[in-house]
Amino acid sequence: MYGCSIKETIWHTNVSAASCDLIEDLGYRTLPKILSQAAPAFCMSSCSFVVEKSKESTARVVVWREIGVQRSYTMESTLCGCDQGKYKGLQIGTHELEEMGAKFCTGLLRLKKLTSPLEYNLPSTLLDIENELIESSCKVTSPTTYVLEEDEPHFLEEVDYSAESNDEPDIDLANNAGDYEPCLHEDGLSDSEITRTHLP
To answer: Where does the Peptidase M14 domain start and stop, copy by copy (predicted)?
Structure first.
């Protein structure tokens, strides 16, 4: 996943068998469809399923063509903000990206359940628990700011950042000036010569 300033929201770019000689498998659209239903910041209409000539050397296309990974995706996120859904008009922040990551993992679980239901018995309650954890993992402090509990460090003592917090007296730098004078006189220079050598 990486940031992009061209579009708004979050979307996938994918490879399509239509852009080569392989038989088309529409299953590559399944994960983006799942994400568009589950993740409020994800936008299916912004997804691209065509390999442009300028993108042929990207990892997504190379992994698909040369290694044979059938469903190779790139997920992109806006640097601007969302233009749809519950985040419309808001900047994408850490919370929204973490939420997208969690919804992506849930989407992979749902994809696995759809593609091989007999092989993989996923209790539906697991998906419900996952969604509850995603929704309850943050506290809303304002409409555009989210504070995750794990973002705040836990200290044993209160930290005071005010300028008046230091009750100790300041060390007088004049008391330390004598430590440097012998160094200057060791070079054999008088005070007037030192002044002249340092003036422009």
So the answer is: 1-112
